[in-house]
Amino acid sequence: MAAAVHLVDIINSRTVPAAGLYITLTRRCPLGCEHCATNSLLSSEQHSAEPFERFVATFTPQEHPDLVWFTGGEPLLRPALLRALAGHSRAVGAGTALITGGYFARDTGKVSSAIWAALTAVDHVAFSLDVFHERKVARSAVFATASRLLEAGQDVSFQVLGTGPADPYLREVTDGIRTTFNERVPALVVQLDSVGRGKDLVALRSGHGSRGRTAAPCTMASWPVIGFDGTVAACCNQEVVDGPAPSHLRVGSAVTDDWRQVATRMRTDAVLRSLRVVGPEYLTVSGGGDLVPGQRYCGTCRGLTADPAALAAAARLAARPTFAAVEEQVVSLQAGAGAHGFAARHGISEYADLVLLGYGKERNECAS
Amino acid sequence: MAFDALSELRAGGNQVDLLSDSQRAALSELSPEEVAMLNSVKARVDAVSGEVVGQEVDVAGGNVF
After folding, report:
1. Which of A49, A73, A251, B14 is 20 to 30 A (C-alpha) from A332?
2. Quick check: pTM over 0.90?
3. What is the rounded distance in angstroms from the CA atom of residue A246 to the CA atom of residue A272?
4. For residue B2, what pLDDT is reported?
5. Domain count of chain B?
6. A7-203+338-365 CATH
7. CA distances from A287 to A231, A280, A281, B35 (A)
8. Least CB–CB distance from A349: residue in B48, B58, B62
9. How far does A276 lie from chain B, in Å, by closest CA?
């Protein structure tokens, strides 16, 4: 029986170091969406299952992520592997989730037994939904699968992508989600960004941040990511996951390390701790360096490997006896903003309240 | 005048009076730079849009996560 894992539960732990773990099972995907952030094709890279199996086997009831999130490419291209990894995760007490574009329902709308077994092996299934996915998989097929999962006792959500708050598609699709699922299935609404094939569709958004003058914590360097080849990175930035990861963001390998080692590095590494409190731009300026014009937040972080002064600033910061108190407060402030606050900051704020749909409701009330 | 970290945090909107005695004691030792860090984080958390926060993150898989 799947454990209750609402989207709010997932978001609320997103900024807690090593509370979760991403596993990118494959870069492959059969859909070929124009906006794909991972630049996935059916011919894209896919590596041996062994590192993933080995790493998940190191989970114990005492040492495991609170949540394991399976992603890709399309993770359901490896349903047997996903089912096995999810099964062991669940056995040790970890929650599990996956995100899918729903390729399996594109032709007939029906779900094979192998795919269904994988879908029901996790606690939470998130469906990607946007104009690009809908050109490949009918919304009705995705909604039908989601309804069936809800009837089976799974938690479900949608990750909806649009061009901005004025995008008419967002109003239309979120109205459809709310109506079809009776206001009980949440959606995280985010903005299309210039990543992967998205670079051909939308220009880079310019930054209006502090540019190093004040602290700007990284909220993404909390959950490690096992990349396509088993490399474990400290964050989900696409270029980091694509590899090679900058040395300060590489926390290990699924081939050689275990979860306890990865989690310990995530929690104790001075540079990661400093990034989560002040961010890369602050560290660059603190080290006496200059920010590169036009270089965005993540680009600045990736460049820290070549900036020993910034890395030294991070080490000095984390070595302060008061730093733990500062860290604790940062985590508390972020948690205090809740899932709605996270969605407003990292998604399209006008739709942030949709992450709360269905939270606290009984699952059987959600089925349409 | 000695630097009063708790007062500065309070002025920045941090609800220090709701913390435990041990947490307040730890925060009372913060330097002006550290207080500025927390006040900045508080302001950013309270902001409601990515435009205001100005922190674009290029995440894998198109996932905000």
Report:
1. A251
2. yes
3. 12
4. 87
5. 1
6. 3.20.20.70
7. 29, 11, 10, 19
8. B48
9. 11
